[in-house]
Each structure stands twice: as structure tokens, then as C-alpha cells.
Design goal:
The structure is a single chain. This protein has about 90 residues and is mainly α. The protein has four helices and no strands.
Length: about 90
């Protein structure tokens, strides 16, 4: 069954809890990060609507980039400031 997202096969039943932590509970962590980014935008003077739209599009764009890339996400994070923003993004290490 595949209601949302992808289905994966794990070789051992013991991995089910790990899959649940990564995938089943994972969206809450992304929402928490998105909430913080959105709040920072509002604190910086953006309207809540603009902060939300920018946050959602940033998350979507980052996810699409990661899906399309063969590089680990850690490498994408390390490369993102020089590759895409030419210095406007402070390196996140």
C-alpha cells in the first residue's frame, strides 16, 4: 500500500522502528524547522503570508534539488552557499 510517499522494503523487522522514526515521525521535524524559518521571516518584517510562501517554496525547492541529485544532502548543504548564492548564504556547518 502506498497512500503517500514511497514504499520501501527492509530486510529485518527490527528496522521497522527506524523507518517509523525517519519517515513516519520525520514530517514533524521538517514542520518544526519550517515553523522556525517562517517565524524568523515574520520577525524580520515579512507578512505572515509572505513568510509562509517563501518557507514552503524553499522547502519544496530544497527537497526537489535533493531528489534530483546523487550527492548526499550533507554535501548539498556544504556546497549551497558558493554554488547557488555566491556569498549571500552564511555557510551552515
Amino acid at each position: 500500500m502506498q497512500a503517500v510517499g514511497v514504499s520501501v522494503w527492509v530486510s529485518r523487522e527490527a528496522l521497522i522502528d527506524t523507518v517509523t522514526a525517519v519517515s513516519g515521525s520525520g514530517p514533524a521535524y521538517f514542520f518544526y524547522l519550517m515553523e522556525a524559518i517562517e517565524a524568523a521571516g515574520v520577525a524580520g518584517g515579512l507578512t505572515p503570508d509572505i513568510a509562509r510562501r517563501l518557507t514552503l517554496q524553499t522547502a519544496l525547492g530544497a527537497a526537489k534539488l535533493a531528489i534530483a541529485s546523487d550527492e548526499p544532502v550533507a554535501e548539498l548543504r556544504r556546497e549551497s552557499p558558493p554554488r547557488w548564492h555566491h556569498g549571500t548564504t552564511h555557510p551552515v556547518s
